[in-house]
Amino acid sequence: MLELALMFFVIAIIAGALGAGNVAGLSMAVGKWLVLVFLVLAVVSLLL
Any stretches that span the bilayer, and where are they (predicted)? Predict the structure, then answer.
């Protein structure tokens, strides 16, 4: 899941450099949510 989030961040950087602001914003938001889900699942798995 973390690899997928990093891929979305790379897509956001490339899209931002090419001037596609909407694509960059959307992929950055998806990447942010994936990182948050990863962190929550990591904490839950450490506690159990």
Answer: 29-47
